[in-house]
Amino acid sequence: MKKILVTGANGQLGRCIKDASSRFPDFQFVFVSKEELNIEDLDSLNHFFNKHNFSHCINTAAYTNVEKAESEKERAFAINAEAVKNLASICNRNETVLLHVSTDYVFDGKKQSPYLETDDTNPINVYGSSKLKGEQYIQEVCDKFYIFRTSWLYSQYGHNFLKTILKYAHEGKSLTITTEQVGTPTNANDLANALLQSIAIDIEAYGIYHYSNSGESTWYGFAKAILQETGKLEDVKLAKTNHYRTFAKRPAYSVLDNAKATNALNLQQINWLKSLQSVLKNTVID
Ligand SMILES: NC(=O)C1=CN([C@@H]2O[C@H](COP(=O)(O)OP(=O)(O)OC[C@H]3O[C@@H](n4cnc5c(N)ncnc54)[C@H](OP(=O)(O)O)[C@@H]3O)[C@@H](O)[C@H]2O)C=CC1
Ligand SMILES: Cc1cn([C@H]2C[C@H](O)[C@@H](COP(=O)(O)OP(=O)(O)O[C@H]3O[C@@H](C)C(=O)[C@@H](O)[C@H]3O)O2)c(=O)[nH]c1=O
């Protein structure tokens, strides 16, 4: 039986994997929050892997605050790079397949067509640099790994753009949203399903993959769709901006080409707007 460790289990993606796990009754899951397993703690990692015999580890634990990372570079690298290196090396020693999640922010955004796995990386902020370092360590120390780069994750859980927009709308705030980035909003529930499906397919096609929803949007377009689909567009003042001020730079274009994941792992892409509609229809967003 496949025994799967899921780290960072109280985060957005971790919680979506927990929900999706009921659709995979043949797998045994061990979900651990940061409090139960801090991936920066090498002794705890060793102890945990010695105690269990994991066939797979899905690492969703990460430092994900893009703005704060600019002033907390050490913390971002400690979690997204150094801890990931330790985890990857322990997975390798235990013959555990590592499934790791990375980001579209490893790219500089200068391309004008969807990014391939083979395109040059060139992060333009600290978060993206720390995630890229994590990717590089995995490739150095681990033989059996999948790195799934995804983009603009949102869901009913955690902190994300969908929840920010709904909160602002609820508070009656007017919204000014950037049109400077083009990318693909991705439902974290779809990614959770894709991660588990790629274990279920049971082939050894290790490497880097892109997996996002399909289509593209700006953050402004995403905000407008959220308000439209929840019937709030008339009640809220929504404006475009092309100079929203932030600490971190972000790639102007970061749409991911998913063909490799479709061809090699049989992962189907779902249109981002359809998936947004499905989250809004099927879940409670608090
Ligand atoms: N969110 C997004 O838009 C995108 C995310 N990704 C990647 O997807 C993955 C999942 O992201 P998401 O679920 O949204 O992120 P979240 O921030 O919601 O979840 C990450 C979880 O990891 C935990 N964590 C942080 N440090 C440690 C540690 N040292 N040991 C164990 N757990 C830790 C966090 O706990 P706490 O909050 O208490 O610190 C949190 O529960 C990450 O790798 C991220 O880089 C990729 C593209 C887009
Ligand atoms: C709240 C807000 C944000 N923005 C802008 C800032 C930014 O350019 C964009 C999105 O803002 P956020 O802070 O939600 O998103 P950001 O932190 O850039 O999201 C990223 O998170 C990491 C973890 C990833 O890996 C990326 O794929 C991506 O999802 O919208 C506005 O224009 N108006 C607003 O009111």
Automatic annotation (TrEMBL):
PANTHER family: DTDP-4-DEHYDRORHAMNOSE REDUCTASE, METHIONINE ADENOSYLTRANSFERASE 2 SUBUNIT BETA. One of its GO terms (cellular component) is cytosol. The keyword Oxidoreductase applies. The keyword Transport does not apply. GO terms for biological process: dTDP-rhamnose biosynthetic process. Belongs to the dTDP-4-dehydrorhamnose reductase family. It comes from the Bacteria. GO terms for molecular function: dTDP-4-dehydrorhamnose reductase activity. It is an enzyme of class 1 (oxidoreductase). Its EC number is 1.1.1.133. It holds the Pfam family RmlD_sub_bind. This is dTDP-4-dehydrorhamnose reductase. Pathway: Carbohydrate biosynthesis; dTDP-L-rhamnose biosynthesis. Catalyzes the reduction of dTDP-6-deoxy-L-lyxo-4-hexulose to yield dTDP-L-rhamnose. It catalyses: dTDP-beta-L-rhamnose + NADP(+) = dTDP-4-dehydro-beta-L-rhamnose + NADPH + H(+). Residues 3-283 form the RmlD-like substrate binding domain. Signal peptide: none annotated. Gene3D superfamilies: NAD(P)-binding Rossmann-like Domain (3.40.50.720), UDP-galactose 4-epimerase, domain 1 (3.90.25.10). It comes from Aequorivita viscosa. Keywords: NADP, Oxidoreductase.
